[in-house]
Write a structure and sequence with these properties.
The complex is a heterodimer of chains A (about 425) and B (about 90).
Chain A (H helix, E strand, L loop, with lengths): L4 H6 L4 H20 L9 H8 L4 H11 L4 E4 L6 H6 L3 E4 L8 H5 L8 H11 L4 H5 L2 E5 L3 H10 L5 E4 L7 H22 L5 H24 L9 H11 L4 H21 L9 E7 L8 H7 L3 E7 L4 H4 L10 H12 L11 H13 L4 E7 L3 H16 L4 E6 L6 H14 L2
Parallel strand pairs in A: 1-2, 1-3, 3-4, 5-6, 5-7, 7-8
Helix pairs in contact in A: 7-9, 10-16, 11-12, 11-13, 14-19
Chain B lengths: L5 E6 L3 H13 L4 E5 L10 E6 L3 H11 L5 E6 L11
Antiparallel strand pairs in B: 1-3, 1-4, 2-3
The chains are: A alpha/beta (about 425), B alpha+beta (about 90).
Bound molecules: iron/sulfur cluster (SF4) (2 copies).
Chain lengths: ~425, ~90
């Protein structure tokens, strides 16, 4: 039996507290994932990753560090991983998706902070996640207010570099982002001891574009009816994409896509043809937050797409691969990342356009707009989202939730009624 | 415990053993799933193979035929309940 206790102890983790998470994860994963029938064979890889979640990948990262490499932890889609990989580092997503970490976060943050922030900070200060222990440096950004202040708390315990995000999308904002990426490059070069060159940046751009293309292939398969992959499984693939090795992530997603494309040719689905199709939009769902998808998919509907940071935003738009100079590469990076449509921007019409486009592309019967409790940005933007969808005659349900189990029954009732209303 | 309400978990010393048996069993078309090891089966975490009561005899044959390395097999009342609504 795998025993990672020695590794966890050497990382300075609170192994006893962490053990409580190890105790509940198998049950939650079994109930949510292994209860599904007829899953693609290639989901076995993702089941394996979760089964060894705090063992295999952390051990790889530690090996990288032993060989002199650095690991940088990130929390947002705007941070360009390309810079880190070009400098021979590894970027790994650090967002916390478990209620388990929230109480530790609440010791240092106000209770009325979004659970994503509380869980992420709690995982660090409670010393209960190996990834949060391993990362040599955290990379923050000035997106929402909660995160901005959270970096200050985290910086007391770990080196943090904060990227100053523009809040608008005018040409001068893209210019500003180019400058910020340049500053980030300087920090990463100093931290890793490696120069970012046109060649290694080109290699990193191609590497991460390949990953995006592979994830996009899987998503494209979800447009079929019957749908060959559950929303839960697609979400799991996305969540793991944030911290897996990017080359392996692309390889595994491509294998899954091969299988799904064959399923489509065979007319083979995981849900019956005609099952009501839901587009989920809103706040990100960091691992192991599987709650909403599970409730939807055990209420007679299937999630066919996510317009969020753990969905299409992660892979849509590629970085131009035909740049001639490093300046052009930086500009291409800034342009690609600034195409993300997060609610921290004003105005954010791009997100509304994306939701309408994706609802059509994925033939959604309805949209569920979910926001994590205390996320003012997405909550406020919900009004525009609802209005635009109603105008197009697309049914929409707005939900607010957190990581606890307490509202599951109530959410199931509301989702059930919404699905029934879809006819 | 009636056989149809039981599930079996094959536990391993490490994931290399687990993946080897998984490949072997799947290449013979037998239905098994990779699962995190339930706490009631072992205090150590990591992967195990979840085998339904209808497939356990075949999996035992595979272990025998391939001389696969493993730790032990644990029979448990069905652990999975999609309506428990306990998330983590
Ligand atoms: S929702 Fe906005 S702030 Fe959060 S990860 Fe996505 S882009 Fe970053
Ligand atoms: S969900 Fe909202 S409040 Fe939470 S980190 Fe993202 S933008 Fe900030």
């Amino acid at each position: 039996m795998a025993d990672y206790h020695e590794m966890w102890e050497s990382l300075g983790m609170d192994v006893k507290a962490h053990d409580q998470l190890c105790a509940v994860l198998p049950t939650a994963f079994g109930d949510t994932y292994l209860s599904q029938e007829n899953r693609p064979e290639n989901m076995a890889y993702y089941d394996f990753v979760v089964s060894e979640i705090h063992g295999v990948r952390p051990a790889e990262l530690i090996e990288h560090q032993k060989a002199g490499g650095k690991v940088l932890g990130t929390f947002c889609l705007y941070v360009p991983d390309e810079i880190v990989f070009a400098a021979g580092g590894i970027a790994t997503g650090l967002c916390g998706g478990s209620q388990f970490w929230v109480p530790d976060g609440e010791k240092v943050l106000p209770k009325n902070t979004c659970p994503l922030i509380k869980a992420s900070v709690g995982a660090r200060v409670g010393r209960t996640c190996p990834f949060f222990r391993i990362a040599d440096m955290y990379v923050g950004e000035t997106t929402c207010d909660g995160k901005k202040k959270a970096w200050e708390v985290l910086a007391e315990d770990v080196p943090v570099h904060v990227m100053d995000m523009p809040q608008m999308k005018r040409p001068q904002d893209v210019q500003k982002w180019i400058g910020e990426i340049g500053i980030f490059r300087d920090v990463v070069e100093k931290f890793t001891g490696n120069k970012v060159t046109k060649e290694n940046l080109q290699a990193a751009i191609v590497l991460l574009n390949e990953k995006r293309r592979a994830l996009a292939r899987v998503f494209a398969c979800r447009k079929a009816d019957p749908v060959p992959l559950s929303g839960k499984d697609a979400l799991l693939m996305m969540q793991i994409a944030f911290y897996d090795d990017p080359g392996r992530c692309a390889e595994m997603a491509n294998k899954l896509a091969d299988e799904l494309e064959q399923r489509i040719r065979d007319g083979h689905g995981v849900f019956a043809k005609g099952t009501k199709r839901i587009l989920v939009t809103g706040t990100p769902m960091a691992i192991p937050n599987w709650k909403l998808h599970h409730l939807i998919e055990t209420s007679g509907a299937v999630v066919v797409c996510e317009e969020c940071c753990t969905g299409t935003r992660y892979f849509e738009n590629l970085v131009a691969e035909d740049c001639q100079t490093i300046e052009e590469q930086f500009s291409a990076l800034a342009k690609r990342y600034m195409k993300n449509n997060c609610a921290c921007f004003t105005p954010n019409q791009g997100r509304i356009d994306d939701i309408l486009r994706l609802a059509k592309e994925y033939k959604a019967d309805g949209v569920i707009d979910v926001n994590l409790k205390f996320c003012t940005l997405y909550d406020m933007e919900g009004r525009d989202v609802e209005r635009a969808l109603k105008k197009e005659g697309i049914p929409v349900l707005g939900l607010e939730t957190d990581y606890t189990d307490t509202d599951a029954e109530q959410l199931r009732t509301r989702i059930g009624a919404f699905v029934e209303m879809l006819g | 415990m009636p056989e149809e309400e039981k599930d079996y978990y094959v536990l391993f010393h490490n994931h290399t053993e687990g993946l080897e048996l998984y490949q072997y069993v799947r290449s013979r078309g037998i239905s098994v799933k990779i699962s995190p090891t339930p706490r009631v089966a072992s205090v150590c975490c990591g992967m195990s193979l979840l085998v339904g009561a209808d497939a356990i005899a075949e999996v035992r044959q595979c272990i025998e035929a391939s001389q696969a390395a493993y730790d032990r097999i644990v029979a448990l009342p069905r652990q999975i309940d999609p309506h428990r609504d306990k998330f983590c």
